[in-house]
Automatic annotation (TrEMBL):
UniProt-listed Gene3D superfamilies: NAD(P)-binding Rossmann-like Domain (3.40.50.720), UDP-galactose 4-epimerase, domain 1 (3.90.25.10)
Name of the protein this chain belongs to: dTDP-4-dehydrorhamnose reductase
Keywords: NADP, Oxidoreductase
Domain RmlD-like substrate binding: 1-276
Gene Ontology terms: cellular component: cytosol
Similarity-based family: Belongs to the dTDP-4-dehydrorhamnose reductase family.
Species, as recorded: Actinomadura rubrobrunea
Task of the protein: Catalyzes the reduction of dTDP-6-deoxy-L-lyxo-4-hexulose to yield dTDP-L-rhamnose.
Pathway note: Carbohydrate biosynthesis; dTDP-L-rhamnose biosynthesis
EC number: 1.1.1.133
GO biological process: dTDP-rhamnose biosynthetic process
Molecular function, one GO term: dTDP-4-dehydrorhamnose reductase activity
Highest rank taxon of the organism: Bacteria
Amino acid sequence: MTWMVVGAGGMLGTELVRRLRGRGRDVVALTRADLDVRDAAAVRDALRRHRPDAVVNCAAWTAVDDAEAHEDAALAVNGDAVRTLAAACGDVDATLVHISTDYVFDGRADRPYPEDAPPAPVSAYGRTKLAGERAVLDTGRGYVVRTAWLYGAHGPNFVRTMTRLAAERDTVEVVDDQRGQPTWTGDLAEQVIALVGSGAPPGVYHGTNAGETTWYGLAREVFALLGLDPDRVRPTTTDRFPRPAPRPAYSVLGHDRWTRVGLKPMRDWREALHAAWPSLS
């Protein structure tokens, strides 16, 4: 079986390629320099040349705030390019796994969003990612895996930022009014591999670690793992840090579909963070 990872230079893509190759799998790893997903002819040519069995799309415009001012540019990557990739996968009979986001929801819920909850994005980033989801789902054959609050060993992320700030500052203020699920790229990579291997029905799956916390709660856990006093982390509110794009106040995703298709959902976020820690510190 041949895998193709598009966006292979990013945080998740790098981890997925590493784990696939560690299993001895045949992997075509395409970074942004290797393949501009906005170039429809190049995308179709790459699929025809390599003829992968499974394609994982980790390429995305992830600059959430910049998308507010450049929605068309974000849509070209997060929506239009995904439609091209989905069609190219159909041409070579490849299974597509598209990585999406919690930002397709408005963040106003008070209980985990199920996989079939109606999307209602409130930011340009969320709208463009929803366009990509629909491009995949319209084919009736691909997987959409929504994730959130990703961290890992490759690339910048909140956990690494807190580790740096812990060495630079006596105290750190972190928002305590946004709830979500910190998710380790290592666990998400394993879940994607399991999903493709399972032959589960196409559709939407939620790829986040279980449980929930706030950014403040996650920061305290990071300080504790560093052997530092978690009380050095001080709670604050989102309105203290105004940003161009609204942040969902509640980004907790439900995982019922994994169980329904016979796959185990991802473990609790604290357990995952402790397992990931040797690769992060």
